[in-house]
Amino acid sequence: MPITPRAEIVALPGYAARRSESLPAKLANNELAEAALPPPVAAAIAAAVAESHRYPDMAATDLLDRLAERHALPVERLAVGCGSVALCQQVIQALCRPGDEVMFAWRSFEAYPVFARMMNATGVPVALDDGHAHDLGAMLAAITPRTRIVFVCNPNNPTGTVVSGEALRSFVARVPPDVLVVIDEAYREFVTDPGVLDGLEAVRGAENVAVLRTFSKAYGLAALRVGYLAGPATVASAVRKVGVPFGVNGIAQAAAVAALAVEGEVTERCRRIAAERDRVRGELRAQGYPVPATQANFVWLPLGERTGDFVAHAAAHGVDVRGFAGDGVRVTIGGPAENAAFLRASGSFLYVGRELAQRGAVGHAGLGQQVADVPLDGAR
User: Fold this and answer.
1) pLDDT (average), residues 200-214
2) Which of 149, 241, 246, 349 is 20 to 30 A off residue 328, Cα-Cα?
3) pTM of the prediction?
């Protein structure tokens, strides 16, 4: 009898290889357009490379100490992992038994349903509201005795929308205490709206809230794979236990520690990106696209069934964007030349619903592509 993997694993969508290398404007993966690292970070990476023959600190002691100091939290309430995506998986692995439910908005980060199925948990998608944001009321109504985790991606990937601080506080207060609310803040550093809650405030005020953050986006360390969780000590401890030993390598740890020391540069870079984001969104709205307000480093074009056509059109103009079949297109804010190329492409794309979209008849938020069929491309 041949070796047979678990049926749940065989049924999972595979990773779809991306072919963007030949396109000059790379706006699909929400990476930073600026390649140059701050000198202290580059120096820390070079020093760590020289020690590559040594195992890294499995406990990531220096990094956890710096994070604890920065966020005024005990080290026991923190865990690090290979990017916030790995921590998503570890949280589900640590908390869920077969048949337990993991809730998330849809469309949201595509790894949530995949990781739930990997752990024999049941993914529960809840449609976004008409503004392409989390419908927290519907999510509350969908909680059952089997619910173990509720993910709130804020800002939401791929729509960029946010829920207000008031709404999120009210939501957390009404979620049962045995359900963990995971606020996924991979794009927190790009938020300029003062009404958006800093998830760490919720962590300090509740025993059933955790926050995920990453060094891949604002800090420009996407290739090194490092992120962290802040939450209840019992959750952080369980997450650390299910992590792969030595998973966060020494180069990533050193780079993250150095990056935390140049916070001013990171903040200024995010400010520039946010300003350009708002400009690009304004240009797209002027072109007739119903782009929702975004607080991330990308914009969302809810193109529905024309999504594939737009992706192909953009590629023909040298621009790589990320399409989500049946729902829309996510476009990273890049450098000036990349953004100009994208806006030229969007300005020359014709579709029947463009005028109707301005009146709200195109791109209605919903479940769109079936969750079970979502392919992963490996990029956060």
Assistant:
1) 97
2) 149
3) 0.92
